[in-house]
Amino acid sequence: MRTRTATPALALALGLSLAACAGPGDGNESDPGEGDHLAGSPGGNSTAMPSAGTDDASPSGGQDGDAGAAALAAITAAEDEAGGAAFSLDDSDDNGSWEVDVAVGDATVTVEVDEAGEVVGTEEDDLNPAVVQALDAAQVPLSEAVESVLADAGGTLNDAELEEKDGEFNTWAVTVSGEGDVGTYRVDIATGEVVRD
Asked: How far, in Å, are 7, 57, 81, 197 from residue 184 at the CA level?
């Protein structure tokens, strides 16, 4: 199981590293305003949140790309452990460990993944049926939403979750910070369109 988890994490880290290679002249120099679409999102212009740079430390003590790769690896580890689909990710202690909520049938399994990517605990609770329905219909999983926002916006991932609006769960809310700015991005679970608040 360790090899299975490490391989996707390595692939994700490589992909995030390549995405971070974009430099000046890539069309992503302007600051996004409210309602702006991120580069690469459907219907979007070419704006993105300024990257925090690779020399800024993330909450996990590593580089921004390392923290993003660690978060994506935590999603994979939690889904493998619980056997379901992740719908929430939080580094609430800012220590590099992640709390991942995974939908399994009609239950939520909260999986704690430490900074080394190891599962250190699980807890089960009831799950809102509307969340189950939204996850069943989702075309874009949580990991893909996080990866899209980090690739386009840069910065350090704070948290991500399936968001309820007007009684419906139809977007992922992904919060990142960088260069003194905290931004929340909404990713449509059906189309993958990314919009900054």
From this structure: 29, 20, 28, 6
Q: How many angstroms separate the CA atoms of 152 and 182, rounded?
A: 15
For residues 28 and 64, which has the higher predicted lDDT (pLDDT)? 64
Residue 145 lies in a domain: yes
Residue 163, domain extent: 2-23+33-196
Q: Quickly list DSSP for 7-63.
A: HHHHHHHHHHHHHTT--TTSS--SPP-TTPBBTTSTT--SB-PPP--TTSPPTTSS-
The pLDDT tens digits of the residues spanning 1-52 come to 333 343 344 344 434 343 444 443 444 433 434 444 333 333 333 233 333 3
Whole-angstrom distance, CA of residue 1 vs CA of residue 18? 26
DSSP code of 192? -
Can you say how many angstroms the Cα of residue 106 is from the centroid of all Cα atoms in its chain?
23
Selection from 174, 84, 192, 98 nearest residue 132 by Cα: 84
Tally of domains within the chain: 1
